[in-house]
Design goal:
Structural class: alpha+beta
Strand content: 15-25%
Strand order of the largest sheet: 3-4-8-7
Helix content: 25-40%
Mean pLDDT: 82
Number of strands: 8
Distance between the termini: 61 Å
Radius of gyration: 28 Å
Oligomer: single chain
Number of helices: 3
Length: 178
């Protein structure tokens, strides 16, 4: 029976080759399961479902009977900006080539570039690219939301029949239910 020896400084551990192969196979199976789960979640065409938190769009009243206001992530303009950011990082790099400038005599070397300025579509992104986009958004959106809340802590509200507006605090309700 063949023995494999693991040595780290003065500590030794002996395992049989069969035990080693069983552990190696088990590890491969677990890694495969993890990859399948991760891959399935990035199959979606909608990145919005994958982010941990949505960006705040505006402040809304949460009830019509009382002056209770909260941050709303419902809406599209702010999300569209973040979505575009998540796609911009996947634009193709431009191609660069050496040319000559034509505006000086004698002409001199001049590096020019050509490239596409189109944003890729979410459907065309690979699972890896989607994962990178989601990771980026999971870092950026909380920062944006923090500063939005800092700048919009109160709203002006006027009771019916009153001529004066008063400041009312906006609830910091955290992640909004969709």
């Amino acid at each position: 029976m063949e023995q494999l020896i693991y040595a780290k400084h003065d500590d030794y551990m002996e395992i049989s080759k069969d035990e080693y192969l069983k552990m190696k196979n088990k590890l491969a199976e677990l890694e495969e399961k993890i990859n399948k789960i991760e891959d399935q979640s990035y199959c979606t065409k909608n990145i919005k479902q994958l982010v941990a938190e949505l960006p705040i769009e505006h402040i809304r009243n949460s009830t019509n009977e009382k002056p209770i206001f909260e941050y709303s992530t419902l809406g599209g303009d702010t999300w569209t900006i973040f979505l575009n950011l998540s796609k911009i990082i996947h634009r193709e790099n431009w191609k660069f080539f050496m040319d000559e400038s034509g505006c000086h005599y004698p002409s001199r070397p001049y590096i020019r570039s050509i490239g596409k300025c189109q944003l890729p579509k979410i459907e065309s992104l690979t699972r890896y690219q989607k994962r990178i986009s989601v990771e980026m958004l999971n870092e950026l959106i909380p920062i944006y939301n923090k500063y939005y809340k800092m700048m919009h802590r109160q709203v002006l509200y006027r009771e019916r029949g009153s001529d004066e507006f008063a400041f009312v605090d906006v609830l910091n309700s955290g992640k909004e239910q969709q």
